[in-house]
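Justification of resources, computational component.

The compute hours requested in this renewal are based largely on the per-chain cost of generating structure records like the one below. Each record pairs the submitted sequence with a full structure-token output. That output is archived, and it is also reused by downstream analysis tasks.
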Amino acid sequence: MADTLSLLGTLVGARLQERGLALACAESCTGGWVAQTVTAVAGSSAWFDRGFVTYSNAAKQDMLGVPAATLAQYGAVSEETAHAMAVGALTHSLAQVALSITGIAGPTGGTPEKPVGLVCFGWANNKKEARTESVRFDGDREAVRHQAVIHALQGLLALIGA
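The structure output for this chain reads:
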């Protein structure tokens, strides 16, 4: 488990450094786990700008500029919110690429429409390229969060061209 995260963190760092890019991340259900993973890599200050842990809707609005209307219409766990979080991380940082994660890690909080294990991701860059994705992960809270971190980093590698 830790080996996969360590490998991904190292690979992300190498790719960002090769391309002269800096990363910002906006995390909700993972609580800063992406930021911890990438900053565990020696030299990460050369390519990691900052992380936002925006667990509440108020934090998403205050720190990232997620519109209240987006949260009201689509909810905190939605691709629309994930997109706004990623774009907000770019806007409120010095980074050129950003990722976001918002989801329901469980064991409670799920609904039939948005079950436990549903995680929404956003990736964006300063070239106005962005994409979102929703994935349903299995397992307990720890497993959902762990899989979300891996998926977010893999998506970032795809965005920056691994």
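The helical segments are 2-19, 33-39, 57-64, 68-74, 79-91, 141-160. The radius of gyration is 14 Å.
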